[in-house]
Each structure stands twice: as structure tokens, then as C-alpha cells.
From TrEMBL, chain A:
GO terms for molecular function: branched-chain amino acid transmembrane transporter activity. GO terms for cellular component: plasma membrane. This is Branched-chain amino acid transport system permease protein. It is found in: Cell membrane. Keywords: Cell membrane, Membrane, Transmembrane, Transmembrane helix. It is a multi-pass membrane protein. It comes from Phyllobacterium myrsinacearum. Its main location: membrane. Pfam families: BPD_transp_2 (PF02653). The keyword Cell membrane applies.
UniProtKB/TrEMBL annotation, chain B:
InterPro entries: ABC_transp_permease, BCAA_transport_permease. Keywords: Amino-acid transport, Cell membrane, Membrane, Transmembrane, Transmembrane helix, Transport. Belongs to the binding-protein-dependent transport system permease family. LivHM subfamily. It holds the Pfam family BPD_transp_2. The lineage of its organism: Bacteria, Pseudomonadati, Pseudomonadota, Alphaproteobacteria, Hyphomicrobiales. The chain crosses the membrane at residues 6-27, 34-54, 60-84, 96-118, 138-160, 188-207, 265-283. The keyword Iron-sulfur does not apply. It is a multi-pass membrane protein. Its main location: membrane. GO terms for biological process: amino acid transport. GO terms for molecular function: transmembrane transporter activity. This is Branched-chain amino acid transport system permease protein. Coiled coil: none annotated.
Automatic annotation (TrEMBL), chain C:
Residues 1-20 form the signal peptide. GO terms for biological process: amino acid transport. PANTHER family: LEUCINE-SPECIFIC-BINDING PROTEIN, PERIPLASMIC BINDING PROTEIN OF ABC TRANSPORTER FOR NATURAL AMINO ACIDS. The keyword Transport applies. This is Branched-chain amino acid transport system substrate-binding protein. Belongs to the leucine-binding protein family. Keywords: Amino-acid transport, Signal, Transport. Gene3D superfamilies: 3.40.50.2300. It holds the Pfam family Peripla_BP_6.
Amino acid sequence: MSATDISTSAAPAVHTGRPWQRDLIGIAVILLAAIGGYFLFPDNLALLTRIIAIMLLVLSLDLVTGYCGVATLGHAALFGAGAYAAGIAAVTFGITEPLSMIGIGAIAGAVAGLVSGVVILRGHGLAQLVLSIAVIHLFHEAANKASTYTGGSDGLSGIAPDPLFGLFEFDLWGRTAYAFGIVLLVLVFVLLRILVRSPFGMLCRGIRQDPIRVSAMGASVKASLIKMYVISGAVAGIGGALNAVSTQVVGLDSLSFTNSAEALVMLVLGGAGSLYGAFVGTIVFMWFEHVVSAANPFHWLTIVGALLITVVLFAPKGLYGTAANLAKRFARSRP
Amino acid sequence: MQVFFSIGVDALAYGMVLFIISIGLSVTMGLMRVVNLAHGAFAMIGGYIASYAARDLGLGYGFAIILAVIGTIIIAIPLERFLYRRIYGAPELTQVLMTIGITFCVIGLANYVFGPTLKTIPLPADLQGPVNLGFRTIAAHKLFAIGCGVAVALGLWFLIERTSFGVKLRASVDNTAMAASLGVRTRIVYAASFALAVGLAAFGGVIGAELLPVEPYYALRYMVTFLVVVSVGGAGSIPGALIACLLLGAIDTTGRYLVPEYGEFFFYLAVIAIVWVFPRGLLGRAK
Amino acid sequence: MKKLILAAAAAILFSGAAYADVIKIGVVGPFSGPFAIQGKNFKAGIDAYIATHGDKIGNDTIEVLYRDVPQADPAQSKALAQELVVKEHVQYLAGFYFTPDAMAVTPLLQQANVPLVVMNAATSAIVTKSPYVVRTSFTTWQTSAPMAKIARERGVEKAITVVSDYGPGVDAENAFKSTFEKEGGKVVESIRMPLSTNDFSPVMQRVRNSGAQAVFAFLPSGPTTLGFVKAYNENGLKEAGVQFLAPGDLTQESDLPALGDAALGILTTFHYAIAHDSPENRAFVEAARKAIGNPAELSFPSVGAYDGMHVIYKMIEATGGKQDAKKAVDAVKGLAWESPRGPVSIDPETRHITQNIYLREVAKGSDGTYYNKEIKTFEKQPDPGLAPAK
């Protein structure tokens, strides 16, 4: 049980046209979905913003799990670090400018990524999973203990971000937060597309497939992975900070094992190893959960469980991975 | 000195309870290579059956245990046939998704059928109440749990290392195709060892119910603990799991006694330290 | 002519429809997950109130919407509250089992013009976060402080506190310690243990070694209490005569069948016992048991929810069904009524409920069931925790 066979194989790229064209299409789809979401569900913007924040967490998890093959159940540590850093900056140090809060969140996430990367990468397979569990519990307990700054189990409330650019207020209807989230998401997506196609991104994919061969080629496996972990931390930190800015509160749950496990479930649901898979998984899981739990708050867990089982049985590569495979087969069957 | 013995007794009892519940998981994860996050769910089902048998039907404790083990296996057989068989050899993350899905379903159903309250399994009179050890008292059922733990450890070791079933199991796991071509009916071996793992889970769920009470959320609440002890021990290794349970039980108990405020730090820092030194678990097989 | 009559009839119908509004109440609570039973109790209390008082106030019909936050998750709680207000146009927010979830929603209230009726969350400071918060449950300070007086009355000189290491646990520790020491007692040791503790034997050994005459404990209600109470018995503390004191969360009625004989004789202070003897309570328990399905599942959050509904009904009456949070909250300041738990009132200044706190002992009834037997009453207790919170 080594790190190599842990992740599902990346969804094979569908080579229909030049890569940059496909990215433009991808961005267009995100923007269309965003605008569609705004007009179709104008009263659900708070939920949509939350989905964007979690999407950033799942994207960040995809970087280490999907692209590098590191199995982790402790990724919320990076998200929570970003959320708490942004929140503490606002409450204790009076830094309430939203862009600075996001920046602080990204830095804190990167630092948390460095720390947990160093610890988690020590193990392999199951041991790695256990190290990640230990890391998330330590982060959680540390936040619980530092209640002077974090509010402990009562949560860190009283975060009051300034209006964005001094113009757009973060209000009850959540339009500002939503637009802000979409812009952040598109920016992160563009940067990550560049990253995963860069030589460094290719190296990381190589590590997932065969770490021994990569090190035989003269590249440092561990250094690359830690570098990826730091980048991933920054992305998760942005997500956490966005969550802190838009909901104006941070709770211990953002640093919890449950949050980490849910992120992993969403990633695998969508299909690990592809940025689009992360998008699809997050939207499907959170939207499904939202609809089902509102329809029946008492027994929705059973239905979510059934959804997960169904996906494994009928779409074993995740929703996006299986769809991409089908599309490819369909394209090939035509002359 | 008395403190030392006192902690030692508690640690032994706690470690043994952990061992009984998690050893089944060590079988599925180490021998069958399935990351079975639904292990706690099977332990919980066992607990519910025993509780129903002993409390509502008024059957004896021993009978309730047997009923729990058999009942849980019967429930698990169709799950093995229709769900688990699809994920043998699948990537671990797929297994995680499937078994978490099963866990969610079981929790939801338990909540629906039995309601969200705690369920107890009444102990026979002999196991109730404290026993005086001279320097302190300890609950009788804890002594019983220690005994069960030793019996399970010996029995499993014998089964896997000394019987023909054990040979077939190890052969099927190491190379399914080769074992099959040599005439081992690997499907049946897999199904049997799955039943064994589930039966052990149910047994542990009943014996450990005094410490880890049965309620719908049981399946997720203790999942992390089970996963940690099995992995620290090295999946698939029975002595490894035993040592890990006793070691972690001791660390946990000592931490709770000496520095309860930092008990959580103490435990997980120790886990990191152990894995740091033994990156494949204490007695894990290098692959 | 015929057309005219039709038009007139239509006009009457439509104007009628315009007056008879549906007033929506959004309830956020844990309806699934490890605290599902507490959410179920919210619903039972609310259903019981609607069953006994009808779902109409004047011409307006009450509709209750439920949203699930399984574990403390302030961000999720806030997103759901926002949705309830913006999309479902609820006029009242209610429920909230966990403090952080309630705290997260308070900044919304002013802009949303919606009052928040807290039906459980028990940290004192919540009511200070917004003038639109009213609480009908209790605070940990309110239920813990009287226990210190009881301990002193019963001649306890030295006590030890054992609490779970999270907000409410720390609150309980502070409440007991400060009151106990003010009354001249001494807390020899204060132990805080992680929430995830399963085996309490080592803690009990420490309690034993401390030489205290009584142990004051606080754990969240649910599975851990069972292990804790059992460990207390099995480690011989009961025989050694160490008195077990706690706020009533530890012996909530839904846990009592599981605790069984182990809990007999435990002293708790709390605002409500299902066994409270009054005609109001008998009527409430009957309705709530019917609502919850399994009578054994009924416990304290139901009464917070029941009284919460009472407050909301009074608010709707005062505002005539119009959305006006300020008027609604002002209308219930100083409101006094006979609750199933006894006489209560809303403190006009703090908007927290003033109520009797009862000393209870776990006892076994003639039918073999366990209940909290009230043996002493502290009348009209305000929340002593608000002063330190400010």
C-alpha cells in the first residue's frame, strides 16, 4: 500500500483543440455558471458563496491528492488556518480591508501547508493518513486552547470586513461576497491551470505515478511535494479567508476532521486529478446535501450515503472522470 | 508506585477494548486491502442487536453476544456480495467513498429504526460492580474485556498462522490469480474473511459498549480511533495491532491522568512520534 | 350582472387572502448527526405548542421551516439563516442548540429586521450581541451557580471540578468555582478534559486522590455522560462518599434509562424536569410526548422550544403579523407567564429568561423508570453570568 496506488488515475485529457483554447472554454463555463447561479438562485447567494469557499479547499486538496498522490484526511487544517488568520487579523489587529484579509489568509494557509506537509510526507499509505489525522486534531486542539484569540468553541465572531474598495458592502443579500468569491475563484483557477501544466506540475504527476523513477531522474521528490503543499496551503487559505470574510464568523469546525473528510469525499466524488473534477464534486455534493437536508432535515444522511454508493458503482472514476471517459469514447467511435 | 500500577491497569483495560474492536479492521485493511471505514458501523449493528436481545427480549448476556455476531454477519453478507466485491482491488479513495457511503446509510437507518437515544446492554450480575485489586478497585467487566482480548488475539493468531484457512487466505491476498489457479476458491476465502472481520467488529462492539456506548453516531465518532490504532500497529499484523493498542492505551491513559488539559496533544503528538520512527506502522510489512 | 358578482366575489376573496398571511418561522437546530435527539426535542416542543394553541393567530397562519446544522458550524448556520430570511422571508428566527451558531446569526438581525429567539444555546454573552435576541432556555451560569450553594449547605468544604474542555464546560467551572469560593468553600483542583475522552477511569483516580468531598462535573449531554457516571461508580467514589454534583445536562431524561441505577442519588441543579409537578407541565408533557413519538426521548430542549413559541406568538399578536423586529422584542420585555417549568419572565434589560432553578435527585419511580425528583427550589433566578461576560 504505497502512495502511488492511492489516487484514482487522472482523467485523461481530452485532446480536442489546443490547450489554451480549452482553458478559455473552461473559464467561460465557470463564468456562465456563476452568472446563471446569480440569476437562477438570487436568494441563495450565501450558500453559493459557501460552495465557492469549499471549492477552493477541494481544489487545494486536489493539488496534493489528485496530482501528487498524497492521501490526507487533514486538509482542513490549511483552510482553517487561513480562516482564523483572516478572522484574528480583523478582530484583534483591526485589519478589516477584505483584500488584505485574503492575503493574510493565503500566507497563513501556506505556512500551515508547510508545517503539515513536512509532517504528513514522512509517512506512506496508511501511516500518511494517520499523520494527517493527527495533524488536524492538533490544529483543532490548538485553536480550542487559544480561546483568547480564537474564541474557542464559542467561535470567533465580530469579524466586520470593510466594504470592498470602500464601495461594496458585505450585506445580508450576499451579492458582494458572491461576486468577490467568483473573481477569486477564476483567478485561482487560471493560476492553477498554468501551474499544473508547467514542468513543475508535470513533475508532480510523475511523482504520483512513480516516485522512484522521478528520484532516479535526479529530481527531489520530497522538496517538490513540500513545494506543492505550500502552494496548496495558499489556495486553501484563500478559501478559508473568503469564508471568514463572507460569513463574518469562524468556528472550530473549519479546522475539523469532519471538514477534511467531507472535502476528500467531494474530491473523489467529482474525480481526483482534474481541476474540473474538484468543481463538479463540490457543487454536486453541497447542492445535493442542501436540497435533501432542507426537504428532510431528519433523515437526509441516508440519501447522501446512497448517492455515494451509487457513484462508486456506476461512475467509479468520479462524476467528471467518468463523463470525460465517455465523451472520449463517443468521440473515438465516430470516424 | 501505586499511581503507576493504577494507570497500568486502566491502560491495559482500555487498550484491550480498543484491540477487540479494531482487530477486525486490521483484517480487512491489512489482509483484504480494503479501507473499510464502515467498520464502526458493523460494531454498532452488533451493539444494537445485543441490546435488543438482552434488554427487550430478556435473553442472557452470552446468548446476546452470539446473536449479535451471527446477526451482524447475516446483515453483512449481502453487503459483501453486492457492494464490497465491487471494490476489492479498487483504488483506496474509491473504497473510502463507498464505505463512507455505507456508514452514512447505516447511521441514518439506525437513527430511524432505534431512535437517537443511547442503548445499553445489561451485564450479568457477575460482571457488574467493582472488583477490589488490593491497591484499587476496577470494574469487573473490564477484567472480562481483558480476558476476551487475550482470547481473540490467540485465536486469530492460530487461525491465520496455523490452519489451512489461514494459508489460503494469505495466499489469496498475496496473489489472487496464482492462488485461484492452484485451486483456492478465492471468492469464498474473501467472503469468509470478510465475515470474520465483521463478526469481530460486532463482538468488539458488544464487549466495548460499556466504554463506547451504542448510539447512531457511534459509526463515525470512533472511526478515527480505530483507524489510528490499526495503522500505527501496521495493518494486517495481529501482534502489531495488539502492541499498538496497548501502547496507545497507555499513552492515552497516562496523558489523561497526568495532564488531562493537554490529553489530546499528548496522544496525537505520540502518534506522530511513533509513525515518524516507524513510517509503515510498528510491525507493518514493507511492500 | 353575473360578471359583476363574480368580480365582487373575486375582490372579496383576494382582499381576504391579502389579510390572512402566512407567517414563517425559521428554526435552525441539529436534526441529524450526534445531537439529533436535541433537535427532535426542539420540534416536539414546537409541535406541542402548535397542537395546544392552534396554528392561527387572528387571520394569520403560522408555518415553521426547519434547517439542519448537525454539529456546531457557525458558517453553515449563518448561510442557512441568510437563506431563511432572504429566500423564505421568515419573520422570526428561532432554535439554535450551539452557542457559535447563534453568535454567527446575531449580526444579521438588525438588517433583516428579524428577532432571534434562542431556544437552547447557553452561553451568557449571546443576548449582548444584538438587541433583537431573546432567550427562553437557560445559561450554564444560571444552572451551575446554585449548585455551589447546595454544596456549602450540605457541609462540603473541599470540592473538585471536572469539566469538558470547551466553552460551556469552562463556563460551568467558573460559575461553580466563583460561587463556591464566595460561600467560603475551597476548590482543590480544576480538571479540564478533552471532549473526545472515552475512558474516565484515570480522571476518577485523580478525583479520588485529591481528597475532595464532592466532585462538580460538566459534560455535554449524550454518550460521554454514560461512561463518566459509570466510571464514578466503578472506581469506588460512590462508596467513598464523594458527592456527585452537576448541572442537569448530565441527567437529561433521555439519557436516564441508559444510566440506570448508576445515576441514582446524583444531585443536579437545572431549570426543568419532565417530572415537574404542575397542571401546565402535565399538559405540556402529554402533548410533547405525542409529538416526539417515543416518550423516552423527551428532554429539556423541548421546554425551551415550547416557551420560545409562546414568546413568538406574543410577538406576532403585538405586531399584528407585520414584520417589525423592534416592536416585537419590546412587546415581550417583562412578559411573565406560567411555563411548564414554573413561573418565568423575560428580563426587560437582558432579554434572558428569569426562572426557578430546582435542585433534583435522580430517583426511581414505582413503575421502574428513572426521573429527576425536585427537592428544592431557588426562586426567580436571573443570569449571574452576564456580569462577568460584560
